[in-house]
From TrEMBL:
Cellular component per GO, a single term: mitochondrion
Family matches, as SUPFAM superfamilies: P-loop containing nucleoside triphosphate hydrolases
A single BP term in Gene Ontology: tRNA modification
Cross-referenced InterPro entries: Dimethylallyltransferase, P-loop_NTPase
Name of this chain's protein: Uncharacterized protein
UniProt source species: Mesorhabditis spiculigera
Length: 119
């Protein structure tokens, strides 16, 4: 579990309200990185459908927990599923890793932050 002594910024808002831009601005100002808590942005190749931030929009700010699950193989009943528990483990490990490096951690998310609630 992340330490309560380390800063963690969460940006929550409706679609199209500028969460990603704000997240990048905060990360740049405070030497931070972004962890995506969007349950759909975990999928590879769904950049447009999930409105993932582009490299240009990210302005060099590292973004984590995005584009790593193959949507085709993960939907099969015979292949391993990526669960919310898996996401929590990955996100908490990344948060702790970034805090050890002295980084502020934050992530824009929607008003229904299913993955965020697990952290």
């Amino acid at each position: 579990m992340p330490s309560r002594n380390n800063p963690l910024v969460v940006v929550i808002g409706c679609t199209g309200t500028g969460k990603s831009d704000l997240g990048v601005a905060i990360a740049k100002k405070f030497n931070g990185e972004v962890i995506s808590c969007d349950s759909l942005q975990i999928y590879k190749g769904m950049d447009i459908a999930t409105n993932k931030i582009t490299p240009e929009e990210a302005q060099g700010v590292a973004h984590h927990c995005m584009s790593f699950v193959d949507p085709v193989s993960s939907s099969s009943f015979t292949s391993p599923q990526f669960t919310v528990h898996d996401f929590r483990e990955m996100a908490v490990n990344k948060i702790n890793e970034l805090h050890k490096c002295g980084k502020l951690v934050g992530r824009p998310t929607t008003p229904k932050p299913f993955y965020l609630k697990t952290i």
